[in-house]
Amino acid sequence: MRPTHAKDHPATAPPQPGAAAPVASCAHGTVADDGEGHRVAEGVPVPAGSAEVRRIDADVPGAVGRLLGQVLAERLRRARLTDPLFAEELAERVAGFTLQGGKRTRARLVWWASRACAGRDRAAAAAALRIGGALELLQTCALVHDDVMDRAVLRRGRPTLHTDLTDRYADRVGPGRAGRFGQSAAVLAGDLALAWADDLMAETPLAPGTGEVVRRLWSDMRTEMVAGQYLDVQGQITAAPSLPRVLRAACLKSALYSVERPLALGAAVAGADEVTLRRLGAAGRCVGMAFQLRDDLDDVFGDPRETGKACGGDIREGKPTYLVAVARARAEAAGDGVAPAVLDRWLGDPALTERGLDEVREVLVATGARATVEAEVDRLAAQGLRHFDRAVLDAEGGGPLRDLLLATAGARPGAAAAAGPRPARGPARARGGAEDER
C-alpha cells in the first residue's frame, strides 16, 4: 500500500506533528461472553437506541474518533505502566496518528453497510462502530509501514512517524544512526497499532453465529493486505509485470482491503444473507479497483494540496501501477520505443526531478494511458453501482452507502448515470430469506 492508497487526506485542524491528540479517560470495562465462548471486554459506550444510531449517522467519523479516544486512553494507560519512555515516544505517537485520522472511509463503509442491512439495530450498530475503530488502527499500521518502505517524508501534510523520530535523535547520534532508529521504531509502531486493532476486534461483542464469520473476514483481510503489499514491493525489483499481475496486486492491496472487506464486515455484523453479501461484495470489488486506479492517477497528476503529499512517489519508488503498465503496453503495440525509454529512465529513480516527472506525464498522456485509466475508473464505478442496486437494502442506510461508494470510486461527474437511475428502496431484508440470483 502506498501512502495514498487509502485516500488519506489531511484531517481538519490536526495536532502538531509527533504529538498525540488528546484522549478522554476510560474506565475498565466489564467482561462478557459473545455467545460463542469467547470472553470480550465491554465498557465503551454504545448506541442507546435507534435515535442515537441516527445521531451517529450525522457524523460517523466523529463517533469513531470518540470511541477510539476512549479505547486508546486505556491502551496508553497500560503502556505507561509498561514503560514511560515507550509510552511517550511510541505509544502516544501511534495513538495521535490514529486520532488525527483521515476521511475514515473504511469505518464509514462498515457503518453504512451495517445500517443498510440491519436498519437501526442497536447491537449491529455498536459492533460496526467498534470494527470501524479496529480498521482505523489497522490503517495506522499499514500507513506507518508504507511510509518506511516508500521512504516517504510527509503524511497528511506533516512529517511521517519515522521522520519525526529520526529528527528527534539526529542531533544526538547523527543523521545516519538516527535514520535507522526512526525506521526501526516505525516498524514497531505499526506492530503496536496492529496489536491494538486485533485487541479491539477480539473485545467486540457479537451475536451468536456472527463472531466466526466476522473473525474469518478479519483474518482473510489482514492476509490479503500483506499479500498485496508483497506483490507490490516484489514488482519493484523485477521486470515490468504483466497487466493481469498488476491488477492482481491492486485487487489484494486495495480493492479488498479498502472497500470489499469493510462492506462485508458491516453486512456480516448485521446478519446479512448470502445473496446480499455476494452483491455487496461484487460492488465493493469494482469500487475498490476504481479507488486504486484513481489513486494511481492522483499520485502523478493530483494536487499535493489535496493528496497531502508530493506528486510522483510511485514513479520514484518504481511502483508497478496499472497506469504505467497500460502506457508500456500501448507503446509496445504502437511500436513506440521512446515512451518505454522515458519510463525506464525515471521509474525507480529516487532523484526524480520535476522535469523528469513532466516527461513521465507526457508519456502517460501521449500513449493514451491516462485517458484509458480514467475511463476504466468510470466503468468500474458504474459497474459497482449496478451490482449494488440489485441488493435489497434498508432505504435509510442504502442511500448513504451508495453515495459513499460513488465518492470512494473517484469517478468523474456523470459516471453514476451509466449505472442507471437509483432504484426505490424497501425495508431491510438482509437477515434471511435469500432470493435467488437472476
Radius of gyration: 22 Å
Q: Termini, distance in Å?
A: 36 Å
The stretches of 5 or more residues where confidence is low (pLDDT under 50) are: 1-7, 9-43, 427-438
Strand order of the largest sheet: 1-2
How helical, in percent, are the residues?
A: 55-70%
What's the number of helices?
A: 17
Number of strands: 4
**What is the typical, i.e. mean, pLDDT?**
84
What amount of the residues lies in strands?
under 5%
Structural class: mainly alpha
Order of helices and strands: EEHHHHHEEHHHHHHHHHHHH
The biggest sheet amounts to: 2 strands, antiparallel
Q: Please give the oligomerization state of what you see.
A: single chain
Shape: globular
Overview of the structural elements:
By secondary structure, this protein is mostly helical. It is about 65% helix and about 0% strand. The protein contains 17 helices and 4 strands. A two-stranded antiparallel ribbon has the order 1-2. A two-stranded antiparallel ribbon has the order 3-4. α5 runs antiparallel to α9 and α14 packs antiparallel against α15. The longest helix is centred in the N-terminal third of the chain and has 28 residues. The two termini are about 35 Å apart. The N terminus and C terminus are likely disordered.
Give a topology summary:
Blueprint lengths: L30 E3 L5 E3 L8 H8 L2 H23 L1 H17 L4 H14 L3 H28 L4 E2 L2 E2 L1 H13 L1 H28 L7 H26 L7 H27 L4 H28 L2 H4 L5 H5 L4 H12 L4 H9 L7 H13 L2 H21 L5 H15 L29
Antiparallel strand pairs: 1-2, 3-4
Helix pairs in contact: 2-3, 2-5, 3-7, 4-5, 4-9, 4-17, 5-7, 5-9, 6-7, 8-9, 9-10, 9-13, 10-16, 10-17, 13-14, 13-16, 14-15, 16-17
